[in-house]
Amino acid sequence: MAHETGAKHLLAYSDSQLVVKQVEGTYEAKEESMIQYLQQIADLKTKFHHFQIIQIPREENAKADSLSKLASSLEDCRTRHITIHYLLRPGPPGCPAYKRGKTGELLSLNG
Predict the structure, then answer these.
(1) At the N or C end, where does the chain have fewer CB atoms within 10 A?
(2) CA atoms of 110 and 94, how far apart (whole Å)
(3) Model pTM?
(4) Cβ distance 105 to 99 under 8 Å?
(5) CA contacts within 13 A on the Cβ side of 62
(6) d(CA 20, CA 40)
(7) Is residue 97 helix, strand or coil?
(8) Helices (H) and strands (E) in the chain — how many of each?
């Protein structure tokens, strides 16, 4: 998804020490499925000027989880427009900033 939007630099976060170390090449992958994933990552890394993966604590991984779910839900992001809003402050208690529409899309309640 990042490459298709024209990104040249990619900073990836994972809460899995094993995955981070395997991507960095510090640990060796033994399972065939992981070896295949690592090959895909190696191929994708060549499409960026700079790629870095950083391990973060599991409790700080909410953004990464959201982005991975978004990426896996898109078949071809070139045909979709995605708007991501970062709220500088939370809304009033009990008032969510977004709600789900009938087809699952996020609708802004802030206007």
Answers:
(1) C
(2) 14
(3) 0.52
(4) no
(5) 2
(6) 15
(7) coil
(8) 3, 4
